[in-house]
Amino acid sequence: MDVTYDATRRELTTDKGVLRYHEAGSPDAPPLLLLHGSGPGVNGWRNYRGNLGFFAETHHCYIVEFPGFGVSDAWEGMPVLTAGKSVIAFMDALGIDSAPMIGNSMGGVVGVNLAIKKPDRVEKLVTIGGVGPNVFSPSPSEGLRLLQEFADDPDRDRLVRWLRGMVYDPALVTEELIEERWEAAMHPDALQTGRMMYGSASFAMQQKFMADSDIPPYWSMMHKISCPTLLTWGRDDRVSPPDMAMVPMRLIPQAELHIFPNCGHWVMIEAKEAFESAVAAFLAR
């Protein structure tokens, strides 16, 4: 099976612009959607390129590139909300009624929101860090503060500091990774999305809105998630510390929690084999 970038790359034209994605696996296999996280230079391919071949052995996989991250065309609106809308538009266009989803960080939040609001579309859910509130750890976390510093004033040194905060093993932050992320992070859409999500002014506005609003935070509605859910976490995650898992673990009725040692925020990369094994078993049940 050829799971290279060029062999799996696809495009879908919607009324809001082009959605790009990667596709691999037997056409007769059940679908699996992989939803990426946020941060400088992130996209779906970079999050899941190392896992695509594994999951494509059992599923027809789709790595969805969210609007506004420099790959798919940008949509107007807050990135987390447009990401959720893009997933539904994508599923409708391809005739996917329901599917299991794997969501890394922000992608996990997108999956959680879909499981709350459109439960018939989410068959099973796997999250990788990122969901729930900080219980014992400071908020914003160390990793989010590093991300905020980059969003406010992007430069290479701030990017490197943030990348090193994402992992347990600093050897994973190679010069090749730094160059790849730096080039992608400078895309105008990616810069705008980063400012909207993590810039100091935007963050303060979001906090004020949450304090003044009657709308409950998404995590307080997680008791409405009816699908089986696997929460995966790096024990040494400095972006979304593992105490955050306590709330979704308690509120989601069919939640399981798997914590990987010696692992930071990128569980699917840093604990690749163990993560794939745990998720495969969960999906096969």
From TrEMBL:
The keyword Hydrolase applies. Keywords: Hydrolase. Residues 32-275 form the AB hydrolase-1 domain. One of its GO terms (molecular function) is hydrolase activity. It comes from the Bacteria. It holds the Pfam family Abhydrolase_6. Signal peptide: none annotated. This is Alpha/beta fold hydrolase.
